[in-house]
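Kindly draft a polypeptide, keeping tokens residue-aligned:

***
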Amino acid sequence: MIESNDVLSTRTWLSIEQAAEYTTFAVVTLRKLAYRGAIPFYKKGRRVVFKREEIDSWMGTSRVEPVDADKVKREVDQLISRERKQGRPRGLEAT
């Protein structure tokens, strides 16, 4: 039975199938992450379960900062300028 994310977000404990639905990861991916120790989980006998709050926390640690395109362009321009001052060849001309 598939539960809505609203129901899943109120549960404390999630089965691996529920955790997969909650995170949108495949069950096999969660299983691999768990057994590598990359995601917190609990094991009762043969059953693997996840604590929803810990999944939320774990997901929050994977944030990637957005790229500031203007900053990258300035840094590239500065690098090119330095290389020209040092007499280094540029682009494809360097062989």
Remarks:
- Residues 5-60 form a domain with the Molybdopterin biosynthesis moea protein, domain 2 fold (CATH 3.90.105).
- The beta strands are 13-15, 42-44, 47-51.
- The longest strand covers residues 47-51.
- Residues 13 and 51 are 5 Å apart (CA to CA).
